[in-house]
Amino acid sequence: MSLIADFRLAVRNLRRNTRRTLVATVTVACGIVAFLLAGGFIAWIFEQMRESAIHSQFGHLQIVRPAYFEKGIADPYAFLLPDASEAQKTIETMPGFRSLSPRLSFSGLSSHGETTIPFVGEGIDPVRDRPVSTHVNIESGRDLAAADENAVLLGEGLARSLGAKVGDDVVLLVTSATGSPGAVEVKVAGVFSTSSQEYDDTALRLPLKVARKLVKVAGATSWVVVLDKTGSTDASRRYLASRLPASSFEIVPWTALADFYNKTVVLFSKQVNVVKILIGIIIVLTISNTQMMSVLERTTEIGTSLAIGVRRNTLMRMFVIEGLLVGVGGGILGVLLGGILAEGISAVGIPMPPPPGMARGFLGEILITPGLAVEGLALAVITTLLASLLPAWKAGRMNIVDALRHNQ
C-alpha cells in the first residue's frame, strides 16, 4: 500500500509541471528512437548477410568427411561422400529438414578465345540445389536446368575477366582424380552474382554429372543441408551428431564457414554499443538536470515533509519513482515512434553504396526485432533510474532548517 501511494504521489508531482515532464519524456523517447533506428539498420544488415551467405554458398549445415576443410583443399577427391547412402536418409528425415544438395568442388583453368583464367568450380544438381541457392541472382541468361546438361554458370567477375557472354563456348581444364588432365567444352547458360564479389570473381557452377565425368569421380565432396528456419541450426547439428558416426561424417554449421559475416557482426555490434553508451549518457545528463531543477523548486516542500516526520528514504524513493515513470513513459513512446519510423523508412528504402566485398549497392531497411525493442525500453528505464539517484540523494540529505528558510 505504501508503494502504491508513492507511485500516486509521484504521478501528481510529475503533473505539477507538465511542460518539464513532457520535455523529459520526449528527450528519453528521442534517444530511444535514435537507438532503435541505428540498431534496427544494423540488425537488418545482419539478417540479409546471414541469409545471403546461407542461400548462396554455405547452406545451414554442410556434411563432409572429417578434416575436409583442413586438408581437402589440397586433395578434395580423397574426402568424397557416397552418391547415395543411409546417412542421406537419416538427414532427410530429421525435424525441420527442407533440402539436401550434393556438391562436388574442383578447380582448374577456364579458357575463352585467347584468355585463360583460374576458377573454383562446384558441381551441383540444379533441381536439388534450387532451395539452397535462392540468393544466387541470374544476371543474364538462365539457370542450369538438369544435372547432365552440357552447360555452365559463370560468376559475374569470372565472365567479365574471360570476356564470355551467354551462348559462348568455354573450355574447362582440370586435373582429374587419377592425376590425368581432363577437359570439357561447355556453353555458357547464364551469368550469376551473389553478395560476395570475391566469390563471383572466381566461381563457376557445372551440372553434377558433367563435373563428375570431368574429374572422373563418383560422389560429392559435401552435402549442403537447408532447414526450415535458421534458428534451428544448432539443434539440427546436435540431432545429426547423435545419429551419424563421427568417424565418417563431420557436421559443420554455416557460422563456422562464414568468416566475413562473423567479423562484420563483431565490428558492427561494438559500434551499436558505442551508440548505446552515448545515448545513455545524454539521457542521464538531461534527466539528472531536470530532476535537480525539480528538487530546487521543491526545497521548502521537502523541508516541510522532513519536519512533519517523513523519512529521508521515503523522499529519496519518491524521486527515484518519478525518474522511473519518466523512463517507462519515454521508453514506450520511443519504441512506438521508432516502430512507426522504421516502417516508413523501410517502405522508402535507404540507398546505400556498394560495401567492401560487394559489386552493387542496395536499398537498406530497418528491422526492429522484439529483442531490440526490449533493449531500448531497458535502456530508457536504467538510464532514468541512474539519473534520478543524485537528485534523490540531494533531496534526502537536505538540512531541515535550511530547507524551510529557502524562500525567505
- Average pLDDT, all residues: 85
Helicity, as a percent range? 40-55%
* Structure summary, number of beta strands: 12
Q: What number of domains? A: 2
Overall shape: it is elongated
Order of helices and strands: HHEHHEEHEEHEEHEHEHEHHHEEHH
Question: Kindly, what is the distance between the CA atoms of the first and last residues, rounded to a whole number of angstroms?
Answer: 36 Å
- What class, by secondary structure content? alpha+beta
Would you give an account of this structure?
- The protein is elongated and about 100 Å long.
- Helices cover 53% and strands 20% of the residues.
- The protein folds into two domains: 2-53 and 261-404, no CATH class; 66-248, no CATH class.
- It has helices spanning 2-16, 18-58, 68-71, 86-92, 126-129, 156-162, 197-200, 208-215, 233-241, 259-297, 299-307, 312-348, 370-396, 400-404, and strands at 61-64, 97-112, 115-124, 137-141, 151-155, 169-175, 181-193, 203-207, 222-227, 250-253, 350-352, 362-364.
- A hairpin with a 5-residue loop joins strand 6 and strand 7 (181-193).
- The mean pLDDT is 85.
List keywords for this structure.
single chain, six-stranded mixed beta barrel, 408 residues, 14 helices, alpha+beta, elongated
In short:
Helix content is 53%, strand content 20%.
Map the helices and strands:
Layout: H1 2-16, H2 18-58, E1 61-64, H3 68-71, H4 86-92, E2 97-112, E3 115-124, H5 126-129, E4 137-141, E5 151-155, H6 156-162, E6 169-175, E7 181-193, H7 197-200, E8 203-207, H8 208-215, E9 222-227, H9 233-241, E10 250-253, H10 259-297, H11 299-307, H12 312-348, E11 350-352, E12 362-364, H13 370-396, H14 400-404
